[in-house]
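Re: thymidine-5'-phosphate structure - here you go.
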Amino acid sequence: MQGKFITLEGSEGVGKTTNVEFIKERLAQSGIECVVTREPGGTSLGEKIRSLLLARDSESMDDYAELLLIFAARAQHLARVIKPALGRGQWVLCDRFTDATYAYQGGGRGVPDASIAVLENLLQGDLRPDLTIILDIDPEIGLARVKERGEFDRFEREQLEFFQRVRSAYLARAAADTRRYRVVNVARTLTEIQSDLRRELDQFIRRAQ
Ligand code: TMP
């Protein structure tokens, strides 16, 4: 039996790390052990590519160089981690996946969706996440949270308008497919957020079993 593929998405400062942990725990309570991974990254090669993507450099990165680096990391991740795990029947919980490319490179940078779709279809075939949870917040609040952490990486240094486009792209994708996507408002207390997450996960697990 093929495992299920869950992805967690959102702009900066939405609290993905805390919520990945919460989702993993919730699945474990239902007797489901999952492989937790992230993009860009998730493999040794992918983590090296991640460093290239996040590092600030005096030479600005071309939008297509960025796009291809992201998909290079994804190719390795799919081949070495995601597909083998799903094939063994394991569940995979991934912190960001191709929706982030549509949001950041598509919405943020202005790369046409059709170009992203070519690479998505080439590498993934018909593999798509079974459930995508988008943690949503006004980027102004999200960025203020990121600022508290200090040092900004290459993406975090973008202007507010960039993150507003990222958010709009995520929300447009969610609106176009209400079966796969769930949007969770994270401008609330952790208790409220996790109560929503629990409800969505429990419903998903019931349908999967
Ligand atoms: P993280 O902050 O969630 O670890 O992700 C690192 C950055 O990578 C984040 O700013 C978003 C960016 N990113 C893209 O621009 N496109 C992608 O496809 C992915 C997976 C991440």
